[in-house]
Write a structure and sequence with these properties.
Blueprint (H helix, E strand, L loop, with lengths): L6 E4 L5 H11 L4 E6 L3 H13 L4 E5 L5 H15 L4 E4 L17 H25 L5 E5 L3 H4 L7 H21 L5 E7 L12 H15 L8 H12 L10 E4 L12 H4 L7
Parallel strand pairs: 1-2, 1-4, 2-3, 4-5, 5-6, 6-7
Length: 272
């Protein structure tokens, strides 16, 4: 796998999936701008790990739901790096700012979800494109099941916002294809050290058991490194013909059929 990129920006890069992405890129010598909203200490800790891998970078605070702050973010990238080869849109607003069920969600929470995803991506890609040479890479992190199903009622704002993000990826893929800039989406499964860990501990354990018992065929939850490795694949020279795609990085979770009992889908779980 050949990665020639020199500079990357990862929004929400201070911890969890964002940190996994930053470190995977650093392993390939990419310098990383680590965006954060509130947790400066975690952002600095990620930067230390980036440097320990022989790369470099900087931390930069910005709320990506605010277009003016996105513009300031990319100005800093231009001042520090001069150009940008990889833009990873990973940031997500805090759960408490959007988490309400369908029949109760306020317009403020709805708009917060949309602004942190669809609007942030629209503005961010336009700013990134100005700094990108031909052959650049744009990658959005989504959660595709949130827009496919309707059962997780309090996820309605983020589910709709992620769906809008996924649609924008396809439009940008076409718009930027003449320059050889690829635009793709990664949809993680359930990942340790992510939004999972913001839930109450009994709920977290229930989710872990659910997937270890077979709803994820690989019998484990993912890690930030799993997602970072997928981002690195998209950033490789060999992936230059792949654009406008949504790839599930979920250990096979998306292959399971919720309409069938698990024992039917996993033969080893059937009773004797």
């Amino acid at each position: 796998m050949t990665i020639t990129a020199r500079h990357a920006l990862v929004t929400g890069g201070s911890r969890g999936i964002g940190r996994g992405i930053a470190l995977a890129l650093a392993d390939h010598g990419v310098h990383v701008a680590i965006n954060y909203l509130k947790d400066e200490a975690s952002a600095k800790a990620t930067l230390e790990q980036v440097r320990a891998r022989g790369a470099d970078g900087f931390t930069v605070q910005a709320d990506v739901s605010q277009p003016q702050q996105i513009e300031r973010l990319f100005k800093r990238v231009r001042d520090e790096f001069g150009s940008l080869d990889v833009f990873v849109a990973n940031a997500r607003t805090d759960v408490g700012t959007f988490y309400e069920p369908t029949m109760a969600i306020s317009l403020d929470k709805w708009e917060t979800a949309m602004n942190s995803q669809a609007k942030a991506f629209l503005v961010g890609v336009r700013e990134a494109e100005k700094l990108m040479p031909d052959g650049g890479r744009v990658i959005a992190i989504t959660y595709a099941p949130g827009g496919r199903y309707g059962s997780w009622q309090s996820w309605v704002g983020m589910g709709a916002a992620k769906s809008a993000l996924e649609t924008l990826v396809r439009y940008f893929a076409v718009a930027l294809a003449p320059r050889g800039i690829t635009v793709n989406t990664i949809s993680p499964g359930w990942i340790e050290d992510s939004v999972l860990n913001t839930l109450p501990e009994p709920v977290v354990q229930m989710i872990r058991d659910h997937h270890r018992n077979g709803w994820t065929p690989m019998r484990r939850l993912g890690t930030p490194a799993d997602i970072g490795n997928a981002v690195a694949l998209f950033c490789s020279k060999e992936a230059g013909w792949i654009t406008g795609q949504l790839v599930a990085v979920d250990g096979g979770m998306g292959l399971m059929d919720p309409a069938l009992p698990l024992a039917i889908q996993q033969p080893e779980l059937q009773p004797a």
